[in-house]
Design a protein that fits this description.
Layout: H1 2-24, E1 28-33, E2 38-43, E3 62-66, E4 72-81, E5 84-91, E6 97-104, E7 109-117, E8 121-124, E9 127-130, E10 134-139
Antiparallel strand pairs: 1-2, 1-10, 2-3, 3-4, 4-5, 5-6, 6-7, 7-10, 8-9
């Protein structure tokens, strides 16, 4: 029973550290949307994120990727103002681009809004699936 209590306390402590880090630097995170099976990995402060398998791009502000797929949308620039960042994204072919905002809502929720330009499309079952203009992401646990 003591071991279980100790493990629970360690887990609780690690959760508090994660939440505290998200409040201090909300735009250094790994976010996930289960509905569309997409994720965003960002660090708008140091801009040191590399796209797995596509290191040719070098360090970036971040990217939007799809689980079990190498396709991505690269975040080429990010300007943070308060709890919202304005992003410029291009697809990994460089053929489409868009402007979006990413807003930090609370300890674990972020909202991505596509503002202008192309619509984010991701591969799904051999076809292109358009993502909604507004999409909710949560911190990856």
């Amino acid at each position: 029973m003591k071991k279980l209590l100790i493990l629970f306390i360690i887990w609780l402590f690690s959760q508090n550290i994660t939440l505290a880090q998200s409040r201090e630097k909300p735009f250094h995170a790994h976010l996930f949307n289960k509905e569309f099976d997409v994720y965003i990995k960002i660090n708008f402060y140091e801009e040191d994120i590399e796209v797995p398998g596509q290191e040719l791009y070098g360090p970036l502000a971040g990217f939007l990727g799809k689980k079990h797929n190498s396709f991505c949308w690269v975040i080429t620039s990010a300007k943070v103002e308060g709890n919202t960042a304005t992003l410029s994204l291009i697809n990994d072919y460089g053929s489409e681009d868009l402007t979006a905002t990413l807003s930090f809502q609370n300890d674990s929720t972020y909202i991505l809004k596509q503002m202008s330009g192309s619509t984010i499309k991701i591969p799904k079952n051999g076809k292109w699936q358009k993502l909604p203009k507004t999409l909710e992401f949560r911190l990856k646990e």
